[in-house]
# Entry
Amino acid sequence: MDISDFYSTFFEEAEELLGDMEAHLLALDVDNPDMEQLNAIFRAAHSIKGGAGTFGFEALQRTTHLLENLLDYTRRGELTLRRDIVDTFLEAKDMLHDQLDAYRQGVEPDAEAMARICEVLQKLALEEIGEPAGDVAPATTVAPSTPPPASGGTGQSLSVALLGVSESDRKLLIEELGQLGDVLETRGEDDRYEVLMKSTASADDIEAVMCFIVEPEQLDIRSIPPEQLPVPVKTPEPQPKAETKSAARPAVDSRDGGANSSIRVPVAKVDHIINLVGELIITQSMLNQVVEDSEFTGDAGFASGLSLLQRTARDLQEAVMSVRMVPMDYVFSRFPRLVRDLAGKLGKDVELITEGKSTELDKSLTERIIDPLTHLVRNSLDHGLETPELRAAAGKPGTGRLTLSAQHQGGNILIEVSDDGAGLDRERILAKARSNGLPVSDNMSDEEVWQLIFAPGFSTAEAVSDVSGRGVGMDVVKRNIQAMGGHVDVISEAGQGTRTRIVLPLTLAILDGMSVRVGEETFILPVSAVIESLQPRADDLYTMAGGDVLLKVREDYLPLVALHHAMEVSGAVTDPTSAIVVIVQGEGRRYALLVDELVGQQQVVVKNLETNYRKVPGVSAATILGDGSVALILDIPDLHRLSQSKKASDAVARNSTVLSSKEVSAS
Amino acid sequence: MSNLVSVNPVKKAAEISSREFLVFSLGDEEYAIDILKVQEIRGYENVTRIANAPDFIKGVANLRGVIVPIVDLRLKFRLANADYTQQTVVIVINIGTRVVGIVVDQVSDVMTLTAEQIKPPPEFGISLPLDYIHGLGNLEERMLVLVDIERLLTSEELAIVERVGE
# Structure
């Protein structure tokens, strides 16, 4: 097998290890570091170094080597941690990540950046320990890359058994073991091949490195007493099994237990399964409909079979959808670092609290929510939370609290970013809105005022700082969230803090839809956009100059958008009083949508139109109905825009005809 | 420039020597497309209209769970008689990762054409711009217009595919 086949496994695992390393570094209590955490950080660096060596990623190997040595001093208590040292470690971790990315793209990492970080690490080692950070010279493969043992001894003696490992892999592994210590003897067959060695690395370190190539089950690592080593003794007595097991296993189990029970699957495969299940559901409802239409009463067996099919298909759909769900931790885990760095830069003390990390959300949504959340977190840190001095003056604890939380709420997920900072400044927002030419008044409710921050080009930051105010505003946050079918609210109280609530659907693949009929055609409205539906009375309709019609609903006048006009449907009911209006809301604006009839509510499988066609104005996607036909899912805000532009072009057309008829009469 | 126009089609014709083509008719003309681009042939049924689209885009249809746009080539080529009959068929075409259905009057044949049977297209006198034509297939009694269906369907004027930067 070609070694490059293992590259992707290495990249993925190394990425995870770097993530772990960062999480541990961030959680580390500098004054009283937890031994377990230090060990975990060391192990991560060590495993990456081992893998990098195996695959010949030299720069990565050298950088990790330096870092690993420093970490080793740290865990042995020879290097006292300080905040700036942890910062250096974090920097080194970022560097490793960049190098990993470079190798992943098949290019050599930036040599200059590497030299820089190596220098920093070496300097740190010289200053703190008084000795260079170890062997940086040709860090190819042969040099024993483990830290020089302090005692000068050769470490413990180990027997590493490879179970059912092919010869080619075996060669790689033995080479790898050679880097971790001295290989004394090799023996055995394919099903159990034993390597006797002396090494300073612990059994689980060895296992961590080897696991880039083989499964943990394929390894049996035991320590053996030195006198049983092969040189003086011919046949080493195997150690009592139970004892060594207990020595090596526990650490391994805790790390690999999760990995063994899960698999990595490309998203495309899962999407394909989801599509197929969607098909199954549609076929099943087609069958149902056929049976209903034909009034086929048949025998009871058929009917019960059909309902069983229905139930199983729904369960299957639910099960398959859950495959795509990932915990919010995937999103939240990137914030501790951001908050730490930003707080440092802004001179603020911030405690980050995350709640509901295990709340699950569709993978595609987690990826898209990261940017908006990052923006909100930055905003809270920059504008929301005050400096320790200001907080003290306001009688608040010097350390600000920033909370990220996620929870399920019906079919939605509620994500909140809240801080206990200064809150939004009503007067300043109003003043800014006025200078931006937005229609505002002093007696607007707080909620309405807070919504103003979502207007394009709106920033109350007095100066553009390093952190925010660089043009990506809250309007982009709002737009991104709306593009995911969600919405944002802001709750704020002066002096108490700000809370931003994001409500998102759990998945983009299924939508609660309301089907409406216009003429002969059926359209789907997202239920989340529907507020109510009613039959308008003639008294509530007001015609405006230019042909616009407004509908009075309680205290509000809502523009009336005729679906048949926007979607060019013929044979529809045109008189509003004999049709139905659905009050819908999109991008914070409400309007009344005129349709012929409400058909019903159902869950629909969302199908992308752009896969094979293109974006259609007023339409967000398509779905397949029970009869196998395609129905378009309406894009509520876009439909309004479409209707406006159609009215405008109609008016132009009317004017030009009026004009030409005038010209005709004049001539 | 004129040099280019006359050289290119010859080269194209040589490149596609001896390949199989699916022959279909639009009005009185016979067209042929590379059979490797054809996924399947279906009857015309159940198309959902798309508002505010040009008339030759009939809408979208459900092809076993995939939403596929349906283009009526007869309307695109301004044929007078684009009625739907028993013979009207939809040829499902694969272009890259996309799937598109085209409506034609009738599918008649699958033919193998050799390089000698393919002549460069004339410089005028055809309802299609030269861009979309590989060449002309010469078969004793018949003349086939060899259409580069991929080029035609991804062309700007059809607007099946969104233009970059839009």
Notes: Residues 39 and 92 of chain B are 5 Å apart (CA to CA). Residues 1-11 of chain B have pLDDT under 50 and may be disordered.
